């Protein structure tokens, strides 16, 4: 891994860590999430459980270079899919009965535009994965022994 791939790898690693933390929170404090699932979706418990599984699954895909691009695109889709719950939280004025910041109507409304950087972050990881996959590898330098031409087997270096 060269220096040019460290920044995209770090962004992907951070996204994977964020997704694991968010997904895990769906199992640790499911009540917070269940209260913001829009009522028209019915029983909130399976929606919370499966969205947590989806976040952890996306994290696993993003963490591995071979599956990073599809995992990041799935994370984009997931961030878009859960947006209605954030809207519901804002419409409800925060999470009822919770202390600041979860119970704050102002924070609930200010949280809505924060979904945009999450979507752009995941999209950036997906796009950087495409660039890395499309970049041709540098041809290896060769060195010929005295009196003969270089061949594929004569690699430069130790």
Task: Detail the topology: elements first, then pairings.
Layout: H1 6-28, H2 30-34, H3 44-63, H4 68-81, H5 83-91, H6 105-111, H7 115-134
Helix pairs in contact: 1-3, 1-7, 3-4, 4-7, 5-6
Entry keywords:
7 helices, 158 residues, mainly alpha, elongated, 0% strand
Please tell me about this protein's structure:
The protein is mainly α and 158 residues long. It has one domain (3-133). 62% of the residues lie in helices and 0% in strands. α1 packs antiparallel against α3, α4 (68-81) runs antiparallel to α7 and α5 (83-91) runs antiparallel to α6. The chain is elongated, with a radius of gyration of 23 Å.
Quaternary state of this entry equals single chain
First-residue to last-residue Cα separation: 19 Å
The DSSP helix count reads 7
Low-pLDDT residue spans = none
User: Can you summarize the main beta sheet?
Assistant: none
Share in helix: 55-70%
Structural class: mainly alpha
- The strand count comes to 0
